[in-house]
Amino acid sequence: MAELQAFDVIFIGGGPAGYTGAIRAAQLGQTVACVEVEPRLGGTCLRVGCIPSKALLESSDKFLETKNTLKKHGVLVENVTLDLAAMLKRKETIVTQLTGGIAGLFKKNKITRFLGHGRLDGGGRVVVKAADGAETAITGKHIILATGSVVTPLNGVALDGDRIGTSTEALSWSQVPEHLVVIGGGVIGLELGSVWLRLGAKVTVLEYADRILAGTDLEVANAAQKLFKRQGMDFRLGVRVTGAQRDGADVVVTVAENEPIRCSHVLLAVGRKPNTAGLALETVGITLEPRGQIPVDDHFRTTAPGIYAVGDVIHGPMLAHKAEEDAVACVEQIVQGCGHVDYNLVPGVVYTEPEIATVGQSEEDLKKAGIAYRKGSFPFAANGRAIALGHTDGFVKLLADATTDRVLGCAIIGPRAGDLIAEVAAAMAFGASSEDIARTCHAHPTLAEVVKEAALAVDGRAVNL
């Protein structure tokens, strides 16, 4: 096995954490290598996750709007039909463009890319195994594990890579499912369920808990469920799925103490788990935590000297932007001696219609912690821009400390919620009060005015309600 050059920093994994961290390390003057098993860089998020799902969400929304809504704007379109093949091709074009962009950034920043499966081989050494079995060893002063996450399996659900699939398969079905059963009422299930619902599928969501979107502000989650039901999505909460098997051309989903459900397709979306298989952590003495994460300290250092971990393989929300922040902070800590991520300020977004976005603490969090707070809420139905857009469902809810008025959290359900949450996240990062947001001049007419009005409502002085 040939020994190649040594590097200052080696990333194992080329997803959001790996490629972002690699670029930042190169910017700081380090020699950098990135090991990725997939031919295209970008990880699950870019190849079969965040980006392709958002492409399909956008396309399916335009299809539904053309069928049902454009006539309200005086735009008449007759005989609207679906070209699913073209829709899927557009999705792939976007993925190809962005993965190619990352490859270009690697070249620009002189990052050495190794194609193959990376594993540890004692301290300071990584072995890269190519698809043909050939192995190459490289060495690094600092090795950062950024291998992301994989789908969590469910006992009895026999994934077949086709009719019974994960998000990967659900992004590429060549025909609209007649009846799609989604196992799991979280972000992935609701987003992809929305795509196929808009394109004509019957969609049934099965969720073990008594609510959807676990961990999201309960008031917002309940409002979202009502809106999704109005769109045609069927929910069965508090049910335990015991299996899903092919039965000829159909799929049969078995549910404890309920009648089996016969459908055409199943999407398993009960969560994700750290992707640590095959890393050979035992060669450096790393032992996983009970839930499968790699244990790290506040500086992303594992128990093995010179080895770090970031992103989905460690604690915290499994989100691409959190992984990117982890990687940048880790690299800056290594090179400059300082780096930090505030996990209370990591926004979460669900790209359904309407969108859902949160940052900071929820009402449930504050009540559990015994923190006194004040709440301000304002509906999009009272906002001029939302009315002009024709998207008036939802509201902004802002939570502030009862004594100091410092903003503690925000939940938004409504148009462009994922964009609007950035204002609140930035305000919270600077320790802003609800009065600070309320006294900031917001352009009119904009959706952002709903955030301002919610801030005014904390003090009981919303203007347009």
Describe the protein's architecture and organization:
The chain has about 475 residues and is of the alpha/beta class. It folds into three domains: about 5-150 and about 275-340, 3-Layer(bba) Sandwich (FAD/NAD(P)-binding domain); about 165-270, FAD/NAD(P)-binding domain (3-Layer(bba) Sandwich), CATH 3.50.50; about 350-460, 2-Layer Sandwich (Enolase-like, domain 1). It has 13 helices and 22 strands. The protein has helices at about 15-25, 45-50, 50-70, 85-110, 165-170, 185-200, 220-230, 320-335, 365-370, 385-390, 415-430, 435-440, 450-460; strands at about 5-10, 30-35, 110-115, 115-120, 125-130, 135-145, 150, 165, 180-185, 200-205, 235, 240-245, 250-255, 260-265, 265-270, 270-275, 305-310, 350, 355-360, 375-380, 395-400, 405-415. The strands form five sheets. Strands 1, 2, 3, 4, 5, 6 and 17 form a seven-stranded mixed β-sheet that branches. Strands 8-15-9-10-11 form a five-stranded parallel β-sheet. A five-stranded antiparallel β-sheet has the order 18-19-22-21-20, sandwiched between helices. A hairpin with a 4-residue loop joins strand 4 (about 115-120) and strand 5. Helix 3 (about 50-70) runs antiparallel to helix 4 (about 85-110) and helix 3 (about 50-70) runs parallel beside helix 6 (about 185-200). The longest helix has 25 residues, at about 85-110. The termini are far apart. The mean pLDDT is about 95.
Characterize the biggest β-sheet. 7 strands, mixed
Structural class: alpha/beta
Number of strands: 22
Question: Mind telling me which CATH architecture of the largest domain this is?
Answer: 3-Layer(bba) Sandwich
- CATH class assignment of the largest domain: Alpha Beta
User: Could you give me the name of the CATH homologous superfamily of the largest domain?
Assistant: FAD/NAD(P)-binding domain
